Amino acid sequence: MDLSTTNFIGDLVREYSPYSWVASIVNGVIAIVAIMAVGVGPSPMLIWWERKVAAFTQARLGPMRVGPWGLLQTVCDVIKLLFKELITPHGADKLLFFLAPALPLTGSFLVLAVIPWDHNLQVANPGMGVPFIIAVSSLGILGTLLAGWSSNNKFSLLGALRCGAQMISYEVSLSLIMLFVVLMSGSADVREIVLSQQGNVTDWWIIKAPFLGIAAFVMYMISATAELNRGPFDMSEAEQELTAGFHTEYSSTAFAMFFLAEYINMVATSALASVFFLGGFLPFAFPDFGFAPIVGVVASINGALAILPGFFWMAGKILFLITLFMFFRWTYPRPRVDQLMSLEWKFLLPANLILLGLGAVFIAFGLILP
Amino acid sequence: MQEYLPLASFLFLGAFMAGSAMLTAKLIAFESGPNAKKNEAYECGVETFGDARIQFKVGYYLFALLFLIFDIEALFLFPCAAVFREAIGGVSGLTAFIVMADLGLFIFILGAGLVYAWRKGALKWG
Hints:
The structure holds two protein chains of two kinds. Chain A is mainly alpha-helical. Chain A has three domains: 1-40, no CATH class; 43-73; 84-364, no CATH class. Chain A is 67% helix and 0% strand. Chain B has a domain at 56-120. By secondary structure, chain B is mainly α. The chains are: A mainly alpha, B mainly alpha. At the A-B interface, helix 2, helix 6, helix 7, helix 9 and helix 14 of A face helix 1, helix 2 and helix 3 of B.
């Protein structure tokens, strides 16, 4: 297996082992452990962070009792969920009911696998990485619909339908924005897209494509918020109308799996946003605009910033975007369902098509350099 | 084929994680035994009536169809978009114009489909 990951342990094995596949397996296992650590590990931390951000927005303290600043609150919640009874509601389709929580989790894991976390840290790099991401992220929708249908609960069914309609609608504009990035970078390979942004800040796609980049980024963030079913677009679990939406009947760890998938999806979506628009694992570097007096200073500052490994820059960008998602959730009021659908089909989708056309024209006239 | 092996391992990992989590809860959690009231579907405390697999709005199907059309057309555009810059850079004059016109035509068809759905009232919710 040809993993695009290398590390010193794998290299050591490769040097001293007579079998080349041993090194591959060692590399693969290390990469999988590392990506599990960065993708799944922070989820409890993110739940704590979300509660802290919510508290900050509403001038409260948030969790404070368990551990310093309430850091261990989520650990307690997880333990509590583990000891809860797994209830199957009367009349539920048992097979589908327990299959449903596994699907969103699997889909988000597969997205994590193709994200380049660092120069040498990526589990798999299929040549057409972006279409692959679009394909596997649909697994989440499938899980939602199955969960709603199999629960034998009216709230669940209605919540799942709403959620499905919302997610497929916003997936259209999300894939069109990804298409725009592919058009600009000239490659559907996720790693190539990152490497096409090498240089300083002005080489990131958000700035390098004049005006279009920032428009695409804003539309990506709106679509991603709706795709993740997060507030203000959390129509599927609007408490006042649908109790908890598609996971009303889920208890214990089955519910925890939906919750975990939501947070992993948030990490994956933010990672993709940083890959597409913010330079991915590339370090932050100031531009010097060829202005002679500051060239030396800027170069030394950039050199100092580049000391941090790419992984930290990726994590920093992801944390920034996630915090942005959290601010959205606690700042904006929830729109109605029909408003949400018309926002997508009557504004975002035509805007995306115009964006694509403009992008092609800009490239043809050399306004967007590779 | 071999480079999809790590992806398969992640697929397995996701399924395994969900499965083992639910199994753990089944094994260690306290269970109070089946109970007609407990297993009833939750409807805000009122007694459950009828089946939950009810008829729902046809609008959902309409949006699903629209999604299919647009997503497939977007997927068709991916290879085109990936080679667009090279195609434009490698050729000049008339050929570049034809490449541009091709992509423009495709996007125009996408847009025309949207306008058609809009005019037919398919985008109206409720």
